[in-house]
Amino acid sequence: MEAILNIENLVKVYGNVPNQTKALNGITFQVMPGEFLGIMGSSGSGKSTLLNCIATVIQPSGGSIVMGGKDLTSLNGKSLANYRGKNIGYLFQNFELLDNLTGSENILLPTSLHNVSEKESRLRLKQLAEYLEITDVLDKFPMQMSGGQRQRVATARALILHPKMILADEPTGALDSKNAKNVMEKLSGLNRDDKATILMVTHDSNAASFCKRILFIQDGIIFHELRRGDESQREFYERILKVMAQLGGGSYNVL
Predict the structure, then answer these.
(1) pLDDT beneath 70, residues of the chain
(2) Three-state DSSP string of 141-154
(3) pTM of the full predicted structure?
(4) Using H for helix, E for strand and C for coil, what is the string for 59-107?
(5) Would you say 138 and 129 are in contact if contact means Cβ atoms under 8 Å apart?
(6) How far apart are CA 64 and CA 131, in angstroms?
C-alpha cells in the first residue's frame, strides 16, 4: 500500500544566526491511507509546527512533504489553494467558525469556494449533520451552540469536500471531558467506518488513546513510537501515559 503522505527530513528554523531555534530537526515518517495517527509532545516540542508545515500554513526550512506525488513545499497560487481545499480538512482547537454565519452556512462555505453544486452540497450537509448529530443546530449561530456542538460543526466543515486527510490540531483542547470524548468517538468512527485518514496533534492522552499509532516528538525530533495492537483502549492509554511521563507531561483524566 502506498503512503498518502511522505515526510522526509523536515526542518524548520526560526530566527537568524546567532539566535536561531530549530523547531523541527529532521522529521521523517509516512501516513498510510485510513490511518489514525497521533502526534504528541510537550509544549514547544515542534508538533504544532509540524502540522502547520503539512497544512502549508508555514514554509519549512528544508526537507520535503509529498502528497499525491507532489512536493507541497513547491506549491503556490492556484495549486496551493486546490491542495488546501481538496486534499486536507483542517480541524482547529478553537473551532474558527464565522460568528455571523449559521451552522449550515459555516459547513457549506468550502463548497461555495470550490464550486460544488448546491444539490451535492446539500446532500453532503445532510449526511454529515446526521452522522455528527448536529441537525438541530444547523440554523443556529456559533454563539448559540455548546463547545461540543461547535467542534462537530467544524468537523463537518472540514469533511464537506471529502478531503484525502483530516488534520486535527488539539481538537479537544477547548472542550470539557464529556464533549471531548464525544468528538473523539465521532472522529474514531469516521476512521473506522469511512476509512478516513486522520493526523492529529494533541497533548491529551485520552484523545490520543483513540489513535492507532502515535509519534512522540521532543526537541524537534521523533524519539518514540507506539502502535496499538489487540489491547483495550484503557491499556493503550496507560502505555501513552508512561511515555508522556518521560516528557514531563500527560493527561490523567479518566476515559
Answers:
(1) 248-255
(2) CHHHCCHHHHHHHH
(3) 0.88
(4) CCCEEEEEECCEEHHHCCHHHHHHHHHHCEEEECCCCCCCCCCCHHHHH
(5) yes
(6) 36
